[in-house]
Design brief:
- The chain is an alpha/beta fold.
- The protein has one domain (8-105, 179-274): 3-Layer(aba) Sandwich (Rossmann fold), CATH 3.40.50.300.
- Helix content is 37%, strand content 23%.
- It has helices at residues 23-27, 62-69, 93-97, 105-108, 115-125, 132-145, 162-174, 192-208, 220-226, 244-250, 254-261, 271-274, and strands at residues 8-18, 35-46, 51-55, 77-82, 85-86, 98-101, 180-184, 212-217, 229-234, 237-243.
- The strands form 2 sheets. The protein has a 6-stranded mixed sheet with strand order 6-7-8-3-9-10, with helices on both faces. A 4-stranded antiparallel sheet has the order 2-1-4-5, with helices on one face.
- The longest helix has 17 residues, at 192-208.
- 38% of the residues are buried.
């Protein structure tokens, strides 16, 4: 794999903010503001059909990283190359080639849109589809892909369960056929009974679709189920990285070991259990 060109190449990426200053410090006009580095000197590669886990506790910088990749936050410095080009220049990559599944589907879905319109919107805006019958056929296909029955297509978000809203969010994100799918804590807002079903769905989509994934989470047990490689972040830096099985077996950093010690004994559900 080392000779293969990565889908996404992140190079010396930083996101810095000025710290709040006291009144006296603000009076010193010549004083340089102290900076807080949410992400610092971060580097990694994402390859074809790979799922990369980004793990860390709250404040580790993982969400800041995902928002920079998605184009929701500008980087302070560094580079993010999609297929060898800066994300903003890679054929509209900032809009269609990188898509995000947000943590809380309730907040990320427009309450005035039906499910059908929610899924159709990126087909029109990002794929340029205009024929209503073709759009409707694609919406139906996407709903089937995320295992959402057609009967829900004309309902509104408030008429859906948490798991159903999560499926709509996933369908909307994959509608433009992105090169990279960003998953920001995709099961955190769901009931425990629903989480396994969504994880199994994501695992199936990883096998079926021609896209790479980045899973942002605080939970290494989710990484163990879905990911090939993992980077562990703490205070904006990568403290451990490698294949998931290797990191799980031979973690060298104390912080990674503390995350592993907190792991529940979790097994992958069978398809019958997950679809029950």
């Amino acid at each position: 794999m080392t000779d293969e060109r990565p889908v996404l190449n992140v190079l010396d990426l930083w996101k810095s903010y000025p710290r709040k200053q006291s009144f006296l410090a603000r009076l010193r006009a010549s004083a340089e503001p102290e900076l807080f580095h949410a992400v610092q000197a971060l580097e990694f590669k994402l390859f074809e059909h790979q799922c990369l886990g980004v793990v860390g506790e709250s404040g580790s910088g993982k969400t800041t990283l995902s928002r920079m990749i998605a184009g929701l936050l500008p980087a302070t410095r560094g580079a993010m190359l999609l297929d060898g080009k800066p994300i903003g220049e890679a054929g509209g990559a900032g809009r269609s080639s990188v898509q995000m599944v947000f943590q809380d589907p309730t907040e990320s879905l427009n309450p005035s849109y039906t499910v059908r319109r929610t899924i159709a919107e990126p087909l029109r805006l990002l794929r340029g589809m205009r024929d209503p019958s073709a759009i409707d056929a694609s919406v139906t296909e996407l709903s089937e892909l995320v295992q959402l029955p057609r009967m829900f297509l004309d309902r509104y978000p408030h008429q859906l369960s948490g798991g159903q809203r999560a499926r709509v969010g996933i369908a909307r994100a994959i509608a433009p056929s992105p090169r990279v799918l960003l998953l920001d804590e995709p099961t955190t807002a769901l009931d425990v009974s629903v989480q396994a079903k969504i994880l199994l769905l994501l695992a199936d989509l990883k096998e079926q679709l021609d896209m790479s994934m980045i899973l942002v989470t605080h939970d290494l047990s989710v990484v163990r189920l879905l990911c090939d490689h993992v980077i562990v972040m703490k205070e904006g830096k990568v403290v451990e990285a490698g294949p998931v099985a290797e990191v799980m077996a031979t973690a060298t950093h104390a912080y990674t070991r503390s995350l592993l010690d907190a792991l529940p004994r979790m097994r992958r559900p069978s398809r019958v259990e997950a679809l029950a």
